[in-house]
Each structure stands twice: as C-alpha cells, then as structure tokens.
## 1
Amino acid sequence: MIKHIVFFTLKPEGEGRPAHENALEMKARLEALNGRIDGLLMLEVGIDFSRTDASADVALYSEFTDRASLDAYQAHPEHVAIARWVAGLRESRTIVDYEV
C-alpha cells in the first residue's frame, strides 16, 4: 500500500475568495475523487484550525493500492484539473509518499 500526504499553504486570497473559503472548496473537490479513480482506496482532506506559524492550511491524506495506482491518480484528468486549480491558490506544498 502507498500513502500519499500533501500539505498546502494557501495564498491569503485567491480567485476573489479568502484562503479559508478556498480550503473548503479544495476539500469538497478533492474528496469527490473518492470512488472515481481505480486504485485510490481513500482520500481525506483536513483544514487546519491551529493557525500556528508552523501550520499548513490544508492536509491531504490518501491511500493507494500500489505505486502504479498513485501514478494513475496523478495523471487522471479529474485530478489534473483540480491540481491546476489549486496551483493558482497555493503559496507552497510539501509532499510525502511512502510504502507500507
């Protein structure tokens, strides 16, 4: 199994909306991918409430059957569309992929 974790720090505003509203939209769009991509076992998105200097705004946690499934997710048109949208909203992202 592969675990894919991404932390996003969002711009204070994007597309005319504050970061928190964009975080809620990210959560809805990303979690809608559940059940739509082969090999994606689960995907959840959390929005940070602690708001410390060390915090990211959004965390994505997902599990895949294998590396090929993660690769397919990365190339899937629905994921690509969301990733392009998110790219315009984020200041930074950090990714960790590991096998268990």
## 2
Amino acid sequence: MQHSPGFLRLVEQAKQRIKECTAADVQARLTRGEQFHFIDVREDHEFWIDHAAGARHLGKGIIERDIETVVPDKQAPIVLYCGGGYRSALVADALQQMGYTNVLSMDGGIRAWRDADYPLEKDKSI
C-alpha cells in the first residue's frame, strides 16, 4: 500500500515518542505466559479475516473512547498492532497522551506476524 506523505510524517513523529517491539518479542511473551493486553487496532473487516491468536479487537476508530473501560489500569502492559505498524504507532501515541505508561506498538503489524508463521485465529462470530 502506498501511504501519503502527510500520513507517513505523522507516523514518524509518533514513532519518536513511543516504544516498539517485534512480532518475535510478542510471541516470546505469549510463550512465557506473560499477562498483557494484546490489542488489534485494525478495522472490523480486517480483524474478521484473521488476527493474531489471543488478540482482542479495539479498532483505531473507537479505542480512545473505549480503552479506559477495557483497560482501566493505566500502568497495565499493552501491545498494539495493525496491518504494518503505522496505525498502532498512532494509537500508542494517543494512549500515552491519555496517561497509559506501558504501551508498545508491534513493528511490522500482522504482516510480520504472518511472515513469522505465528498462530492466527478467525473471528468465531461470523
């Protein structure tokens, strides 16, 4: 996908303020049984196709509205991902502005997850 220059500039600015991790980092945390909120911020239709096993869906369009209900503890560890790591970087930046202190964006997003052949799930409600 070809992203617009303005969007890429916005993402690069956000990435200077947030922390990122790799798909391998996230899989290792899951394998160790670490407790964290694993959140897919893609659009509904993207999540329904498939998503990282164990991930919860809170789309970018509603996460700021709903995050405090889903994750009331602002120190709780949160890992966000999207398609390629751009939207999740923007969401991580927004959540930090809301006071969340332990937020990571998964660089490479679901593409990196799929490329590594990590477990996927499909939405069971379809």
